[in-house]
Amino acid sequence: MLERLPDSHVKVFVIWEPVILTDIAPPTSRTLARIPDRRVAQYWDRQRLLSREIVRSALAEPSKDAHEEINERTIVWDTIAVFSAGTRWDTAFPHADYHGYPVADVIDEVEGRLTQPDTKPKNGA
Amino acid sequence: MASKILRGALVSLAVVLSAGVGWILWSRMAPRQTPAGQPPLGLIESSSGLSTLRDSFNAASDDPRVIALLSPT
Predict the structure, then answer these.
(1) Pairwise CA distance, residues B54 & B46, whole Å
(2) Inter-chain contact B61–A15, Cβ cutoff 8 Å?
(3) Is pLDDT of B4 > 70?
């Protein structure tokens, strides 16, 4: 997707987390190389802290995504979210302008969202 | 005859266990280099690690951002 948006000022955060039995260690260089774009920052979240934070924030505001059933044991995985310029993460994890899963199925939608005017950078680039 | 079968089974078990141990060691000791131009692999190991991610997210607030949660395997 990023190679099709070479001039986009998007910043991508890839969070790797253990979900299945074979996820016993952080991603190897080969795995990290799957996403080579310079606009990407990659993280290893061994305790799935971000997933817990997302679930905690979603449970605190259940009206936002009423069609999705989540509980405290939900693991947010193989999920991608888009945040427009200006969105900040302060006390609670911010509400995404778009989120979907699995990533392979929704990547085209994400690309479309990133080319929409309301997700463009604030400086108009 | 029975001893041959047993020996074969033990050899097979040893091979499988060795392969498993080797895979685990490789998984833990393999290099973890991010591609050129990217920052080093960040570690989220505590609430402070999550704060680092949050700060990076907010530092880029002039731009649209994408967060993807993935599994390594």
Answers:
(1) 13
(2) no
(3) yes
- Strands A40-44, A79-83: pairing is unpaired
Task: Classify the complex by whether its ipTM is higher than 0.90, answering yes or no.
Answer: no
Q: Would you mind telling me the total number of residues written for chain B in this entry?
A: 73
Q: Which chain B residues contact residue A20 at CB under 8 A?
A: 71, 73
CB contact under 8 A, A82 and B65: yes
Q: What pTM does this model have?
A: 0.83
Q: How far is CA A12 from CA A91, A118, B64, B67, in A?
A: 21, 17, 9, 6
Which residues have a Cβ under 8 Å from the Cβ of A15 and sit 6 or more positions away?
A42, A43, A45, A50, B44, B53, B67, B68, B69, B70
Distance of CA B25 to the CA centre of its chain: 11
